[in-house]
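> example.struct
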């Protein structure tokens, strides 16, 4: 059990990568806070895990919500050892076509959410002598993609913030890394399929981004998050681990 006696918070854990991560961390002994803005989804994941998990309704763009999430975690489990900043979303748009309101939402959830969660969790980790923070970046923070200007900018910010946090908190015993998923079959893309003109062609195009010619699955990312959350990665900090089926190797 790689995470015995550890306590983890996973944001955006009601579905997809977040849910898979919460379940995998729990299977390795961690007590898990399943945080999601959709409480019913979070509760379903926590129920699946069992008594070592609690569900919380959390909007990561709200400072008050994050403060409550951390205090509820401490009340339930006494500490925080692992933070997985997974909550996020994307939408189409260039700098010309993207609405200002969508830009603000993208930044508030994808980037400000990482800032707020880390801001209030780091002091709790310091009390325990350290911890591990894993931020979900994306391959597009490295290579970019057309018609996703706001999402690319936000995820690029996550990658940069990860490096800054790793330097700032190394002496606190806190390791900070990011994971950059490629195309992962999840509810994120399910919602996109509802908006595009030809979903099947869109799926084929997504798979073709990878030399393996397939989409990944949430556990592909959860397994890397487990590695970074555990002592197996004790010398890793300030790094981005790319899991994309070779997309960035073209």
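> example.seq
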């Amino acid at each position: 059990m790689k995470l015995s006696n550890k306590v983890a918070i996973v944001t955006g854990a009601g579905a997809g990568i977040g849910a898979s991560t919460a379940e995998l961390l729990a299977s390795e002994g961690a007590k898990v806070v399943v945080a999601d803005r959709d409480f019913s989804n979070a509760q379903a994941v926590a129920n699946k895990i069992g008594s070592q998990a609690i569900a919380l309704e959390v909007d990561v763009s709200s400072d008050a919500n994050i403060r409550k999430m951390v205090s509820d975690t401490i009340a339930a489990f006494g500490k925080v050892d692992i933070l997985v900043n997974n909550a996020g979303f994307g939408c189409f748009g260039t700098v010309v076509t993207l609405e200002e309101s969508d830009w603000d939402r993208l930044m508030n959830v994808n980037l400000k959410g990482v800032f707020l969660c880390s801001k209030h969790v780091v002091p709790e980790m310091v009390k325990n002598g350290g911890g591990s923070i894993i931020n979900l970046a994306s391959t597009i923070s490295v290579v970019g993609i057309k018609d996703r200007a706001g999402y690319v900018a936000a995820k690029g910010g996550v990658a940069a913030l990860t490096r800054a946090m790793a330097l700032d908190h190394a002496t606190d015993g806190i390791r900070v890394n990011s994971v950059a998923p490629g195309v992962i079959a999840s509810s994120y893309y399910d919602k996109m399929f509802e908006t595009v003109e030809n979903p099947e062609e869109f799926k084929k195009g997504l798979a073709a981004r990878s030399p393996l010619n397939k989409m990944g699955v949430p556990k592909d990312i959860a397994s890397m998050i487990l590695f970074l959350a555990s002592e197996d990665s004790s010398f890793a900090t300030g790094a981005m681990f790319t899991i994309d089926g070779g997309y960035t190797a073209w």
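> remarks
Strands lie at 7-11, 31-36, 53-57, 82-85, 131-136, 174-181, 240-243.
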